[in-house]
Amino acid sequence: MTLEKIVKVLGFIAFLGGIARMGMTPSGLIWGSDSTPELIFAFAASILMAISSMALFMSQSRQTGVFGFISGLILSAGNLMLSATFYGLFAYGGYPKDGLFVNLANSLSYGGLLFATVILMIVTFRAKVFPRWYAIVFLLMLVCLGLPFLGDFFAFFWGLTYVLMGYSIFTGKGISVVTVKKEEISL
Predict the structure, then answer these.
(1) Residue 182: its pLDDT value, please?
(2) Helix (H, G, I), strand (E, B) or coil at 9
(3) How far is 98 from 151, CA to CA, in rounded Å?
(4) Contacts 24+ apart (CB under 8 A), 87-90
(5) How many CB atoms are closer than 10 A to CB 39?
(6) Tens digit of pLDDT per residue, the chain (187 long)?
(7) Are the CB atoms for 165 and 134 separated by under 8 Å?
(8) Which long-range contacts (CB under 8 A, 24 or more apart) does 92-99 make?
(9) Fewer CB within 10 Å: C terminus or N terminus of the chain?
(10) How far is residue 91's CA from residue 135's CA, in Å, rounded to a whole number?
């Protein structure tokens, strides 16, 4: 399997992860926060997003460089840590008791995801691979995180970023890939 096909498969997984993350918003509004349906969507989305976050970097790696790579790694690790939290809610019936490890893990997970999202938004906007209006969706996600009356829609816009970018990666639509001549590649 070629690298291009792997990136396309990861793009499709990002698309599915975004749909699962978007499903958290209506289920949370209907059944309440931390309800079983919302947590099922959250767990599935976290696993899928952990697997596919590197595709957001790989599809524009030449343009985003080290910062894109770092944001992809942090997004993958943060989503993996979130999935562990959601698994704990299913397996043990509640959030773990506060302690040094739990506080450190939550700080790294949530803070890392926020930091990596801001980096990814900036490098994606500058790379000009995806349509520039995708950055507006990133901003909507961050605004929803910061405003209490929009907090229920945070997961929707977070999922929407993965749906848009995953769809673009999988189909190749909306992506302006810079072509490189064979003479420019030197090993």
Answers:
(1) 45
(2) helix
(3) 23
(4) 87/43, 89/34, 89/39, 90/39, 90/43
(5) 20
(6) 788 999 999 999 999 999 999 999 999 999 988 888 999 999 999 999 999 999 999 999 999 999 999 999 999 999 999 998 888 887 787 777 788 888 888 888 889 999 999 999 999 999 999 999 998 999 999 899 888 888 889 999 999 999 999 999 999 887 765 444 444 444 4
(7) yes
(8) none
(9) C
(10) 37
State how far the Cα of 55 lies from the Cα of 79, in Å rounded to an integer: 14
Q: Which residues contact 7 (CB under 8 A, 6 or more apart)?
A: 55, 58, 59, 169
130 vs 124: CA distance, rounded Å = 7
Distance CA 52, CA 75 (A): 9
Residues contacting 67, CB < 8 A, separation 6+: 119, 122, 123
Residue 152: predicted pLDDT: 85
Sequence letter at residue 94:
G
Helix, strand, coil shares, percent, the chain, to 5: 80, 0, 20
Contacts of 20-24 spanning 24+ positions with Cβ under 8 A: 20/44, 20/45, 20/48, 20/159, 21/45, 21/49, 21/155, 21/156, 21/158, 21/159, 21/162, 22/155, 22/156, 22/159, 22/160, 22/163, 23/159, 24/155, 24/156, 24/159
User: Which pLDDT does position 183 carry in this prediction?
Assistant: 47
